[in-house]
Amino acid sequence: MKTVVRVVLAVMVLAAAPLMAHAQVREVLPTDVRPQAYDLHLIPDAEHLTFKGEVKITVDIAASTNTVTLNANRLSFDRAVIDADTASARVALDSKLQRATLTFAKPIAKGRHVLTIDYHGDIGKTTLGFFAMDYDTAAGKRRTLATNFEPASERDFMPSWDEPGLKANFTLTVDAPENLLPVSNMPIASSEKLAGGLARTHFQTSPKMSTYLIYFGLGDWERITNVVDGVTVGVVVPRGETEKGRYALGEASRILHFYNDWFGTKYPLPKLDLIAAPGEIQGGSMENWGAIFYSSEHLLFDPKFSTESDRQLVFLVVAHEMAHQWFGDLVTMAWWDNLWLNEGFARWMQTKAAVELHPEWRTGLQAMAIYDGGKRADAGAGTHPIVQPVLTAEQADEAFDSITYNKGAAVITMLEAYAGPDNFREGVRRYMKAHAYGNTVDVDLWSQVQAASGKPILEIEHDFTAQTGLPLLRVTQTPSHGGAEVLISTGRFFANAADGEGEKVPLWHIPLTLEGENRDILLTSGNETRQTAAHAAPVLVNAGQKTYARALYAQKDFDGLAARANGLSAVDQLGLLYDAWALGEAGYEPVSDTLEFASALPADADPIVWRQGVNILVGISAAYGDDPRRAAFDAYARRTLTPLAARVGWDTKPGEDAAISTLRTTLLGALGRFGDASAIAEARKRFANHSALDPGQRRTVIAIVARNATPQEFDQLLAMVRATPDTLQRQRLLEAMAQVSDPALAARVLDIAIGPDTPAGLAPGLVANVAFGHPDLAWNFVQAHDAKGDIHTDFVTRIRMVSGVASASADPARADALKAWADKNVDPGSQRPVTAAIAEIKRNASFRADRLGPLSAWIASHGG
User: What is the pTM of this model?
Assistant: First the structure.
């Protein structure tokens, strides 16, 4: 779930707050009754947004009782009986705990029984639980029904034991219009016509699975298929869009074959459907077993409009969710505190699949951005351990953050490198065979990897998952007999260096590689380590960038590495660039060191490295806010990037590296953001004939025009939105318009976000995108519309949206306003995004107060 963290979730990438538990124990159901199988007969009414259900639950009862407690939320019970008894139970609902307690007139004997519940409920308009998504087509309005449950919203759909460790078989029967296609986890077993244009569809029974993986969808859909290793792979799309699903179908077919081999356990279900939502769903996409549900941008690829970045995004998200079919679905964490066994691995595995199947993309190099996202979250004032206590359903939802995903993937990358890829895979294969259809904790996996590798994997894994924090390697070097003596002391990196004064350093065992050395080094934090290297000083520590740490070199050594930047590998160039920027932001070294290193990169450096250099310039410019010194920095950025833009050009060249295409989009878009007159003029010239441009160029041109739009150009873009029924095209246009620099036009974007022109689920992301350039405008908009419910969103996304909008500010008063909003609207145990945003606001203020002066002086001394 939450495959790609969108801008609305950006606060979760920056930091995560300490767990403020409001309960002392997990909110879990009594263990005296356990489900074995669910048999659900569902009757949805899409027109009136209601549904009826009859569920027969086979349960095992440990001891005689007259009460049964299970999860239910926003459901109304019509009848609840046990076995053949006709007397309905008395039902007591607890909306806070989202439970129903059924009290029967007579005790139920120990043993196996069938609990039958007739109930009804409402179909929602947010994209969590059981909901409707409306969208436009050339033939008129359409409505899709779908489910999205992780972590704890299946209880909105069916009374159940809604916990990951309580797996059961699931059988579904649905009565629905016969002209619509119903889809669930398993293939259709049979169907029959009913009166009134309805059909009754029976699905095959699933293997034992967790309730959050159940899926049901109904829509005006078409399905295209392949057969791979005996499994039917399907892509399900809105009618008329099958061509947009063919790329995903082809890649999913290759990925399935690769995963069958890599995991050593074949995908166990008879079919695997990939289903396109007509818009954006909460979390991005969801790995329901056998029926993965994707936001449209994560599955659909239109050769006429989609870019190279879109192509790679679709692959990565498809690979991520398919990896969950093993990590998460076949083998499931026992409880949400080990969520990283699902999400960290899926994020790591998406890169593994891309490296294997598309080496030309150099996805391993691009994954450095993932690892850096984890490091940034871990450096925040309120980070948390990867394996964290989760007590409530709300806290389970909070666990889907950058620590779980990105730090998790970074730690797995480090452990695979230390164990060795073959040993690592052997450990995973043993784990899959030992725990198929079961539930696990992290030690179950890592003990297998340790056994396969013979190395102290459990010790290292524990240090990095049970503790918070990012190691900081302080490195000083002296020449020694043609090589170097390298002294490394270990501290902890903080997003604001001043926060680390006096802080105790956690005990870490840190696997590390020195440049030119083919040996394992296992550092122990808290001790100085002296290593002799054959390579002449300055020696690069963390060569290959596998270690989860940042490296702070003595100034002379950093300058020496910059001087030979052209001789370093692309991954080490990129690692030094990420570290220099983070160290400069935090105040460990001057921000200008980042610019010095970037200026030392060779002209023919990997485009992926250059793209990060461009992103850093954009980030620095944004950090100035409305400070008048920003103009000098933007002028410096224009001068720096113009020669690179001249080499890359505007036009795609036959056979060019895919990374050039993505660099071109980033680079030209940045020049438009920096106010480059020639780039803006060229974009406007090309915009006049935008429909004839190739997809990448068209996206770039629209982005620059939208950023610098006049009211007339804005109206033209809005007319383009309204002229197309294509959900994905609308989304891309609106996302470009949300970057507009004119405050009056940005205010119009905010109004559009909550209007009928915006695809389902997109509004929170658009509001957050506007906040990046107009933090006060977006904040005031949210305050005006949040309480009215105008921004359709679920509870957790609402918290993240409001926090994310606030975090774009550098005004300490905004932190106070956010805290006041949270105290009024959010339970103390669910305020992690709020605390993270407050820390980010303070960091923004600190950056402007302490870093902009020296940086601006450096810019002035370099011709600013």
Answer: 0.94
